[in-house]
Amino acid sequence: MPVHYIYLIIAVICETFGTACLKASNEFTKLWPSLGVIIGFAGAFYFLSLTLRTMPIGIVYAIWSGLGIILITLIGLLFFKQSLDMAAYIGMGFILLGVIIINMFSNSSTH
After folding, report:
1. Which one in 42, 53, 55, 102 has a CA-CA gap of 20 to 30 Å to 2?
2. For residue 45, what pLDDT is reported?
3. 51 with 8: CB under 8 angstroms?
4. 63 vs 58: CA distance, rounded Å
5. What is the mean predicted confidence (pLDDT) over 1-16?
6. What is the DSSP letter of 25?
7. Which pLDDT band holds residue 85 (cuts at 50, 70, 90)?
8. pTM of the model
9. C-beta of residue 22 within 8 angstroms of C-beta of residue 37
10. Domain limits for position 95
């Protein structure tokens, strides 16, 4: 796997961690989750910047946001006991399908 995809995966994981901590921080009233927000988003933007060395920003952002939506939804379901309706699942399926199409068929994924 090319290193820019590894950086992108790390960026997605960091962003998802930061977003989960944002929910857990209770509007920044809890110290440790609030620090997790800062660390998570700092890591996400750092690794995202490394990815942008070799990939177009639109492709990177589509993959980053699409995978982030899927992961944070799973975290919401598992850890925050949130639920979604069928329309939300279908919409997220289309987002995931878009990410797959970009990765499998687009020649724009690298410069």
Report:
1. 42
2. 97
3. yes
4. 9
5. 96
6. T
7. very high
8. 0.88
9. yes
10. 3-109
